[in-house]
């Protein structure tokens, strides 16, 4: 079976693959509890209002999934998404899952940083913001049904930040993003274009899962910014090394690079123009 090729990148596909990748680092009481309906900062934020919002999110997600499934098999007139709308009030409170952003299950790491400025600085370093999944039981009590960076049972298991990995599809998306950026007019002419692209891929492999869905739903912009910084970093390093080489060549009476020679020529022309303008005045 051939794998699906990544033709274009969009936030929806990126978010889906990021979610799958993070799930490889998590443990859940049941597999279906991996799908959350709302992200909150702490348990105190789970109330009547946020529960209703989670129900609406779940109703919207289920309607879209049903519509997409119907569109794959339709013949003739394409079905309307309105035909699959779900009344969120019919969804039970016990069916929604909340993602709570917390470091509660992450061990403390005294001395990891000299100055502790945030909660993350006081705990073990992890590759993405940790979280737990919570839901209501039949008695209306909130229970924990999932933990990130966890191996084994939620009560008897242990913290493990090395168990998972990014999916192959997400890795291909990172590579595709770097390849397309490398063809831009402002960078494709550099002789070290391959090095810039390699550095960008390495950067995405290191910080790709650090994208926080609780703060943004635009991972494309997050990745593009990281790739841009990687390309600019290599360009600055290469320019600095080239200036050092040119200085050494000039000190030994040899011709520097064409870039340095052209810069000197351009500066001379600007000086001549300035002198001519002063004489005319």
Provide key terms for this protein.
single chain; five-stranded mixed β-sheet; alpha+beta; two-stranded antiparallel ribbon; globular; 281 residues; 7 strands; 44% helix
Structural features, described:
With 281 residues, this protein is an alpha+beta fold. It folds into two domains: 25-159, no CATH class; 168-280, no CATH class. The chain is built from six helices and seven strands. It has helices at 11-23, 48-73, 168-182, 193-207, 219-251, 258-280, and strands at 26-28, 38-40, 98-101, 131-136, 142-148, 150-151, 158-159. Strands 1-5-4-3-2 form a five-stranded mixed sheet. A two-stranded antiparallel sheet has the order 6-7. A hairpin with a 5-residue loop joins strand 4 and strand 5. The mean pLDDT is 88.
């Amino acid at each position: 079976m051939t794998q699906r090729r990544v033709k274009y990148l969009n936030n929806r596909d990126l978010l889906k693959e990021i979610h799958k990748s993070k799930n490889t680092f998590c443990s859940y009481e049941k597999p279906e509890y991996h799908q959350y309906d709302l992200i909150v900062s702490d348990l105190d934020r789970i109330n009547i209002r946020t529960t209703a919002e989670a129900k609406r999110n779940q109703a919207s997600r289920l309607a879209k999934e049903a519509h997409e499934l119907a569109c794959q098999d339709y013949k003739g007139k394409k079905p309307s998404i309105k035909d699959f709308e779900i009344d969120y009030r019919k969804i039970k409170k016990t069916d929604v899952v909340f993602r709570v952003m917390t470091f509660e299950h992450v061990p403390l790491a005294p001395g990891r940083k000299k100055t502790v400025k945030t909660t993350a600085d006081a705990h073990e370093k992890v590759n993405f913001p940790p979280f737990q999944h919570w839901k209501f039981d039949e008695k209306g009590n909130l229970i924990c049904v999932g933990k990130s960076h966890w191996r084994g049972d939620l009560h008897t298991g242990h913290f493990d930040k090395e168990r998972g990995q990014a999916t192959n599809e997400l890795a291909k998306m990172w590579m595709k993003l770097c390849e397309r950026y490398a063809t831009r007019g402002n960078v494709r002419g550099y002789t070290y274009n391959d090095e810039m692209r390699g550095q960008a891929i390495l950067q995405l492999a290191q910080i790709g899962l650090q994208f926080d869905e609780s703060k943004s739903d635009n991972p494309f912009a997050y990745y593009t910014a990281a790739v841009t910084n990687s390309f600019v970093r290599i360009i600055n390093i290469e320019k600095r090394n080239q200036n050092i080489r040119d200085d050494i060549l000039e000190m030994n009476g040899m011709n520097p690079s064409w870039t340095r020679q052209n810069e000197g020529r351009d500066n001379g022309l600007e000086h001549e123009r300035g002198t001519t303008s002063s004489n005319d005045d």
